[in-house]
Inverse folding.
């Protein structure tokens, strides 16, 4: 049995890591109510591909995959499979990452944000994408309401709530601890996210 690798992502920050095909990793919310944004990138000699929430919705015909189903790439290839879901949250694949504009509209210029944190992680890995894809927002409660409204509610993920994912190919994965602290999204305050590989 290989040694586990543990990565701590501080509040309002992000980090990236490599996983090999066949490896599993856990995304853990140690303190509870903290959303984790996730991106996955596949780099081969002839192409770069990335997790696409829209392709995933189209292929699975769901708002979010269920256990045993995959998250698909821009080129419709399976990148990650949801192995375990140890969280009561519906999770989210509709909202973009929080960005500078969101905080500026809220009167909070120069606020930490997941988009910049994701781009910083890619820069460290010397990876460039032609677009900034929308993330998978684990532990986020923003399912459509009966009237069609999309409202982000406070996460009800308990301390230690987690998901386990299987890499279907070699991937660079970026995870951010959502930076929203002016809205109930993360229970009113931001905490960290932990990754365990293996």
């Amino acid at each position: 049995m290989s040694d586990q690798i543990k990565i701590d992502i501080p509040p309002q920050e992000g980090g990236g890591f490599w996983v090999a095909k066949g490896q599993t990793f856990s995304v853990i919310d140690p303190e509870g109510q903290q959303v984790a944004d996730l991106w996955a990138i596949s780099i081969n000699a002839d192409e770069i591909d990335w997790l696409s929430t829209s392709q995933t919705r189209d292929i699975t015909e769901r708002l979010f995959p269920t256990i045993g189903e995959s998250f698909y790439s821009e080129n419709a290839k399976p990148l990650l499979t949801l192995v375990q879901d140890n969280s009561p949250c519906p999770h989210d694949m509709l909202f973009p990452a929080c960005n500078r504009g969101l905080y500026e509209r809220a009167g909070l210029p120069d606020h930490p944000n997941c988009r910049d944190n994701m781009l910083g992680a890619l820069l460290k890995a010397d990876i460039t994408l032609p677009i900034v894809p929308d993330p998978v927002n684990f532990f986020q409660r923003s399912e459509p309401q009966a009237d069609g409204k999309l409202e982000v509610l406070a996460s009800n993920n308990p301390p230690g709530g987690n998901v386990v994912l299987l890499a279907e190919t070699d991937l660079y994965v970026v995870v951010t601890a959502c930076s929203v602290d002016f809205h109930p999204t993360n229970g009113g305050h931001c905490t960290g996210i932990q990754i365990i590989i293996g």
About this structure: Helices lie at 53-60, 100-105, 114-124. Residues 114-124 form the longest helix (11 residues). The two ends are 9 Å apart (CA to CA). The chain has a mean pLDDT of 96.
